[in-house]
Known about the structure:
- This protein is of the alpha/beta class.
- The protein contains 14 helices and 8 strands.
- Strand 2 and strand 3 (106-113) form a beta hairpin.
- The longest helix is centred in the N-terminal third of the chain and has 19 residues, at 32-50.
- The N and C termini lie far apart (54 Å).
- The model has no long low-confidence stretch (mean pLDDT 91).
Amino acid sequence: MLPALDFEKPIVELEGKLNELRSISSSDINLSDEVEKLETRLDKLIKAVYSKLTGAQKVQVARHPGRPRTSDYVAGLFTEFTPLAGDRRFSEDLALISGIGRFRGRSCIILGHERGHDTDTRIKHNFGMARPEGYRKADRLMTMADRFKLPIITFVDTMGAFAGKESEEHGISEAIAHCLETCFRVEVPLIALVIGEGGSGGAVAIAGADRVLMMEHSYYSVITPEGCAAILWRSGSNAPEAANALKLTAQDLRGMGIIDEIVPEPMGGAHRRKAEAINSAGDALERALDSVRGMDGHQLRNMRREKFLAMGREPGLH
């Protein structure tokens, strides 16, 4: 059973009753009508709860341990996937997985933060927090994609880049800056999808894209709510207030023109029906790639740059 979020308690209670009713239903005791009524009631409750989530609640959903990870999207959407490892300078970083594969018949380069599914894999992938080597690997593969004229698809899911001592010693800020510079230099289609958390420079480093998409219940922000609360209120207990003030939801960011499309999730979030969420993301990625297909490389690069330069610019100012 999936762990329940605070606001999901009424949903979980109803699901428990439904499962109990199903378990005692048999050929001798026909409870199909009661089960159907309870299923309808449950669907309505989930829809009512998820249609009015606050920013803080969206953050909880984005962090749900049952949400599909980059590895799930890769397995569900790509064929002939071949991992490509190492930054060719220092080491391999498992927090950012990468490779080449086919997306619905198109060869492409794939990059994405990987958080893991259980304790062992989360530790293995450092909870999706990449070190400098991860961003230098991303830089290397985007440059390779540009050389061979392959589109790039990135999956964003991180609280932020790893902020440990060794990260600073190995130049994390330079690695992120150079990775972002490469995003704006390549002359091939670049599509980014925020699938869970999109935190700080660790997220934007691989999201300087022609089209930036967000799963419906993901978030994308310059800082985590906890980090913001620690700076402004000197207390992590103000994180819910910070989450609502940061305007970090897909709906907020679409309204401000920061992202290009919101990808619908199954009712109750991607963690409830992973395959459906992954297919929905695949359709959105295909639309995004189609929208830039056939564009000249110089035109694509210049359009990408202008798109980001225009963010926050007042009309009429240049």
